[in-house]
Amino acid sequence: MITSKELQTGGTVAIVGAGPAGATLARLLQTKGFSVKVFERDASPTSRPQGGSLDLRKESGQRAVDRAGLSEIFRRASRSEAKAFKMLDSEGGVHPAGGAETHKEAGPEIDRGDLRQLLLDSLAPGTVAWGHLVKDVYPEADGRWRLEFAKQGPVTADLVVGADGVGSRVRHRLTSIRPRYIGLTMLSANIRQYLWRGSEIAELVGEGSVMFASGGKTIFVQRCSHDLILLYYSMAVAEDWPISQGFALDDTKAVLESIFAAYRDWSPKVMTMLTQVEGKFQRWPLSVMPPNYRWETRPGLAIVGDSAHAMPPFTGKGVNLALLDALELADGLTAEPIAAVTAAVQAFEMSMQERTLKEIGECLEVGRNIYGIDLDFGRS
How far is CA 284 from CA 10, 187, 264, 340, in A? Predict the structure, then answer.
């Protein structure tokens, strides 16, 4: 069985997914001398929208960035003033919950695309193989794993790490448990550009974000870099919406009709203000893994981030937990050089699972309080 030192000096690590978790892990391992290759299904870093901004917490996301030697770059790319947050009701008045307490631990905000790019820029040239869609991973007789791709030839590695999100192609080799759709889809759109500054919505958002909440529904408004303002609607729809309703996401008229119908009990003035959108809509069906699920460690395999513990963005900790996963796995692989890689991965998994039991539980509690979501994991 390969030791951590053997993996570090002569082995190969294959990471599936070049999102924040995968890119951070690759960076941390490369700084320790590991041979790392990242396989990403996207054709390029800009082939699809990355979403809005997120905050990195001091004891998790920022800690990983610091250990990766990227604190100064992060400081220049992030915005401390964007931490400002308030909650309003469906009439545009102050929400009884206030909102400040929910963001008291928030860190500086950075756009998802900017975070991903600064991580990618820190990697050795050629680390990421773009346009590589992993179909599956298979165990080899010698204890290694073979990655099969949709269009390219196979690759074999001593350690394969799934950092490929909710739809992970690696996870099923460790557990049959899959993320469960919670019944809510986040639908995002850009506010029209002429409203980015000097408009009513721009004044409400300021440099941070605003959540309108009422009746188990929310609309989240967020200022990103370059003055862009994003909207996120919480839609209680089928997982395959809008196809199941007979229209496509690029049918703006039909999508807006669905939004107005979903928020029909909200103030018309508020809804008019919050539907001045342009460009394409994006959708994110929200899923969650059971808080207490476990799996047996398999030699040569690991999963991190949403691949391991998918959860809705209700507490804003998803990316922070993903970066912390990357940091703790990288540390574990170098803590005891003569120890088996499998033992290091097992210790990491136990710590991660214990941590996410708490975090998913807190996330689901927010889901119950705000959206009325109450899942029965007894059917998992």
Answer: 40, 6, 22, 38
